[in-house]
Design goal:
single chain; about 350 residues; alpha+beta; six-stranded mixed sheet; 13 helices; 6 strands; about 40% helix; elongated; binds iron/sulfur cluster
Length: about 350
């Protein structure tokens, strides 16, 4: 038998029985929708299926196809993405949707190489969409697949895993194969205590034969994440009628959380910066005892919280415009703030003004 089929055949037979039902997956016998496949693959990066399910449903109810997403306001898309992290992905979703509409007549290109040219589609996403949406043979390696392949072959390191995955990816049913590997990694070949007794590949698995399942994938020593420090400024205005507004800004397009609505911050530095770049610098700022900590990919951010209260918009040097505006505190949940600012708002809680 073709060496590829030794893995693919039992795996696909298992998948036919046990495939997960997911809202972005095509029902058996129906053609996958490339828009839903692409969207789900982008949403699922660094996020769990349980988190993505309701977000995906809300998203496709609002933007059901690539044309509607291409026509969306970027600010609305960014706000809808809030909480999913890695905001460059949301910006690239809009850019890619517009490129599909403008350059491809509203239809996704159907090969890995052409998909790769769309904004934000890296190697993984292009391979996943090519395989799952279009049935193209593509080697799709996410964290689940990496774990399964590393164990099957006792392959150490990403190049060895990729080379091994290349040898077992079949020419037909490539999309099902990719999803079967993902499902196997999610349900059976779990990071701890894999359920080898239930595994359709158990008699082909080198790690199982050696009793070394949990030694794979081999972990590389991670560099310690540096810490950066900054200050979040909560500037609250209390109106004569008791209504409260808080100052929000739009972060610069370039850089982390670019283009997102946010509470103002000073610079993020290796040392605590103090009240640098405070809005309404002359206001009576109080630094709270609480801090907010947030982990980004490359660093951890520790943020002091500074609060000031004013009784007139004009008491500040803030010029409301497209980038800075007063926002009703009781409607803050609608602002689409990134998680770190949501944490800050929660921590400030009742220690606000009045
Ligand atoms: S036999 Fe066990 S370790 Fe090997 S692929 Fe299956 S579940 Fe994973």
């Amino acid at each position: 038998m073709d060496a590829k089929r030794l893995i693919a055949d039992p795996l696909l037979a298992w998948y036919d029985q046990h495939a997960r039902t997911l809202p972005w997956r095509a029902l058996p016998g129906t053609a996958p929708d490339p828009y839903r496949v692409w969207l789900s693959e982008v949403m699922l990066q660094q996020t769990t299926v349980a988190t993505v399910r309701p977000r995906f449903a809300a998203w496709v109810a609002r933007w059901p196809d690539v044309a509607s997403l291409a026509a969306a306001e970027e600010a609305d898309v960014m706000a809808a993405w809030a909480g999913l992290g890695y905001y460059a992905r949301a910006r690239n979703l809009v850019k890619a949707a517009r490129a599909v509409v403008a350059d491809h007549d509203g239809r996704f290109p159907d090969t890995e190489a052409t998909l790769r040219r769309l904004p934000g589609l890296g190697d993984y996403t292009a391979a996943a969409v090519a395989a799952i949406a279009f049935g193209r043979r593509a080697v799709v390696i996410d964290a689940n697949v990496e774990r399964v392949v590393a164990r099957l072959f006792r392959a150490a390191g990403k190049p060895a895993v990729r080379a091994a995955a290349e040898t077992i990816t079949p020419d037909t049913r490539a999309g099902d194969f990719a999803q079967a590997m993902m499902d196997l990694g999610s349900a059976i070949c779990t990071p701890r205590r894999p359920k080898c007794l239930l595994c359709p590949l158990a008699d082909r698995c080198a790690a199982k034969a050696a009793g070394e399942q949990e030694a794979f994938p081999v972990k590389t020593a991670k560099k310690p994440r540096p810490t950066r420090y900054g200050t979040i400024f909560w500037l609250e205005w209390i109106g004569a009628d008791g209504g409260r507004d808080v100052l929000l800004v739009r972060r610069p397009e370039k850089g982390l959380l670019g283009g997102m609505r946010a509470l103002p911050t000073g610079p993020w530095l290796a040392d605590r910066p103090g009240l640098v770049d405070a809005p309404a610098a002359a206001a009576d700022w109080t630094v709270l005892n609480d801090e907010v900590s947030h982990g980004f990919t490359h660093f951890t951010l520790e943020l002091a919280l500074a609060v000031a209260c004013v009784d007139a918009h004009s008491a500040t040097d803030v010029e409301p415009n497209g980038d800075a505006r007063w926002w009703p505190v009781d409607r803050l949940a609608e602002a689409g703030l990134p998680t770190v600012f949501g944490k800050a708002a929660e921590a400030i809680g009742r220690k606000r003004c009045g």
